[in-house]
Amino acid sequence: MDAIEGTASPSFRLMKMARLLARFLREGRMAAVMKGQCWQQTELAFPLLQEALLTKVVGLPDRLANCLQCENLAEFLPQNYFPLLGEEVVRVLQAVVDSLRGGLDCSVSFVSQVLGKACVHGRQKEILGMLVPQLTVLTQGSCLWQRVCWRLVERVPDRAMEAVLTGLVEASAGPEVLSRLLGNLVMKSKKAQFVMTQKLLFLQYGYSTPVLQGLLGYLAMDSQRRPLLIQALKELLETWGSSSAVRHAPLPQQRYISKAVLICLAHLGDAELQDSREELLASLMAGVKCRLDSSLPAVRRLGMIVAEVASARIHPEGPPLRFQYEEDELSREMLALATPRPVADSPSEAGPCVAPVATETADKETVDGGVPKAQLGGSDSELDSDDEFVPYDMSGDRELKSGKAPMYIRDCIEALTTSEDWERWEAALQALEGLVFRSPVATREVSVELAKVLLHLEEKTSVVGFEGLRQRALVAITVTDPARVAEYLTSQFYAVNYSLRQRMDILDVLTLAAQELSRPGRLGRAPRRGSSDPTSRPSCTVAPAWRAVVDERIRSKTRRFSKGSPGQGPAGSPNEFNLVAGYFFFPLIQCFDRPLVTFDLLGDDQLVLGRLAHTLGALMYLAVNTTVAVPMGKALLEFVWALRFHGDAYVRRGLLSAVSSILLSVPAERLLTDLPDELLEARSWLADVAEKDPDEDCRMLAMKALLLLEKLKDKLLSLSSL
After folding, report:
1. Which of 68, 114, 118, 661 is least enclosed, having the fewest CB within 10 Å?
2. What angle do CA 584, 589, 592 make, to 5 degrees?
3. Model confidence over 624-642: pLDDT tens digits?
């Protein structure tokens, strides 16, 4: 190596020495070098020589790559060298085992240092990918091999312990293999205990579920290590119940910790949980409250799943917790993790075999409910079969109703407020949207009163799509009389004695109504929207079939010299939202920092605050090319700046969406003339969010806003150069 490194540039002499070194590696002489150090380790005669040798052995690929450059040999590439080094380590360990069986004393400290230094250099997969499978086979049924492996890992220096343990946990196929390779290392080494019970559980969350199962299964396999598992569960639940962790930890880390909690509960028995029941329940309930208060559906679902499983395990005699959530692949995986599994060499072997049971159940259901009784019975039942009768076609049947749908707006108000006839009440709700579009003049006379009735309307019967009917009717009223109804709805948003659901309904209605008002050509299509009822226009007749035949003949026999557009484009019309955008926007943004007795946007009602931020951003986007867009953009930017460091991810998403809406809606020239300082501050804030925010969606939205700022700058530079 010294001769190779002393050569200035690639030459024949250098390549001759490199090929000689490659032959040295192919013939297994590296194992002889390490064997010699294993037998000399007890004398401690040449520590400097061992350090230099260690550096040469592990750094050989890098050193030769610097010397040989483009003429490097395949044996010296890292992906080839380190698996070869792993094979040499196995040969050295085999020689150590043979020496111990023969009564000779030896040490594996040098091999441990080689292994640790290689892992610190980032070559865990290459060297451990070759080493761990062979040690898995050799340690099975051999106590001597297991003791050699234990000593091999124990002698790893502390600075390399984390890299070695991380690679072993990832490469081992199950907790039993990990237990054979490590033994009770976590009880002997404080560094190993910190890595296994703290760093791999709390600080690193990129490992797969089988790796996490292997790690916690290793702690559960021995009675001396089980107290560490109980302590890990306490700390995991304490972190899971921390409101700060819920707000600031990224969602993948919260999933990782939730899975770890469920795996710990699956490994612990009732007697072990009994001693720490009060502490575990306190942490669990605190976490459930924090997660159910979160505005992110994924966080709430994690809280529900963990709460159901953990409460049943920690306090089985108490009332069970039950939540309603949509089942998906993640929820099914987490529920499967809570089931205790037998220990095996791999997660696939440890999983319960449920396929035959499911098949048997399916067969039983087929016999019980899928086969007609006529087939299960004898010939007597076949005589009474009515299969030869043709069933009636009832696809077009409708439910007969005694009451008629109201024909006037005031009749709908009366039916919705005072009527005890539930069929009339249902008919009025279903017909209201169409009546509003057909009678705009009559609607404007009672628009505020009708909006008040619908805002406080509660479902009294099992109407299909009640929320949709109510929302569409409110949107139709707001579109018909936008100024007055929007003024009423925005004033009620900050009023007392309203539920959070009603306040979010107000925001949804304002957004949908603004979208409808800003739609091009709305006036030509609005009446058709409410005429879905076929009885509302009896004079409308279908064109006869002969007319279509005649039109087709004329079209085929007509010669045209030029063709225009196939269809007439939408007629141009002014943006109706331009005149009423202020009624929608400014009342919503002016009182957000004033807490009420039952409503505090800056306090516990962060879900509504996030919805408000998204609504303001949508209104800003729909006000593009309007005269009020500039003052709206200024006010919205001040709103964003006041809340830019909010702890809830859903609120920050709404704020970042609002910034993008400002950049898209306000003219670029006005942005630079009216808001230059604000844009510079927003740019630095967006860059900080894109780099450091724990939420992935927030980082993505910040990147999109930064791209919009760059496009805005390029556009202005191109205009100034003309």
Report:
1. 68
2. 135
3. 888 888 899 999 999 999 8
Which residues have a Cβ under 8 Å from the Cβ of 211 and sit 6 or more positions away?
169, 170
Total number of residues shown for the chain: 722
Helices (H) and strands (E) in the chain, counts: 41, 0
With CA atoms as reference, report the closest residue to 209 among 251, 249, 263: 263
Conformational region of residue 439, where left means phi above 0, alpha means psi within -120 to 50, and beta covers everything else: beta
d(C-alpha 260, C-alpha 174), whole Å: 15
Q: Return the H-helix or E-strand segment holding 640.
A: helix 629-643
Residue 131 φ then ψ, to 5°:
-80, -45
Per DSSP, the residues of 334-402 read: HHHHTS-----SSHHHHS---HHHHHHHHHHHIIIIIS-HHHHS-HHHHHT--TTSPPP--TT-----S
Q: Locate tokens 């293999």: which residue?
A: 177
Determine the residue type at 363: D
Spatial CA neighbour of 92 closest among 20, 151, 23, 154: 151
As a whole number of angstroms, the distance between CA 509 and CA 459 comes to 18
Is 118 in contact with 127 (CB distance < 8 Å)? yes
Angle (CA) 307 309 312, round 5°: 100
Greatest pairwise CA separation for the chain in angstroms: 111
Q: What CA–CA distances, in Å, run from 288 to 281, 302, 484, 695?
A: 10, 9, 42, 20
Q: Which of 283, 222, 220, 292 is nearest to 257 (CA)?
A: 283
Q: For 340-370, give one letter per residue: b (16+ CB within 10 A) or e.
A: ebeebbebeebeeeeeeeeeeeeeeeeeeee
Gap between the Cα atoms of 491 and 203, Å rounded = 47
C-alpha separations of 3 from 24, 28, 60, 332 in Å = 15, 21, 13, 61
What's the CA gap between 85 and 87, in Å, rounded? 5
Q: Residues near 42 by Cβ (< 8 Å), separated by ≥ 6?
A: 105, 106, 107
Nearest Cα residue to 114 out of 159, 173, 156, 147: 156
Residue 461: is its pLDDT beyond 60? yes
- Residue 370 corresponds to which amino acid? G
Tens-place pLDDT, residues 128-159: 888 888 888 888 888 888 888 998 888 888 88
User: What's the 3-state SS for 482-521?
Assistant: HHHHHHHHHHHHCCCCCCHHHHHHHHHHHHHHHHHHCCCC
**Cα(230)–Cα(615) distance, integer angstroms:** 46
The pLDDT assigned to 10 comes to: 61
Please, is 462 exposed, middle or buried when counting C-beta atoms within 10 Å of its C-beta (0-12, 13-18, 19+)? exposed
Residue 386 vs residue 361, higher pLDDT = 386
Nearest to 398 by CA among 529, 541, 535: 535
Q: What are phi and psi of 256, to 5 degrees?
A: -60, -45
Q: Measure the CA–CA gap between 523 and 497, rounded to whole angstroms.
A: 37
664 CB neighbour count, 10 Å cutoff:
14
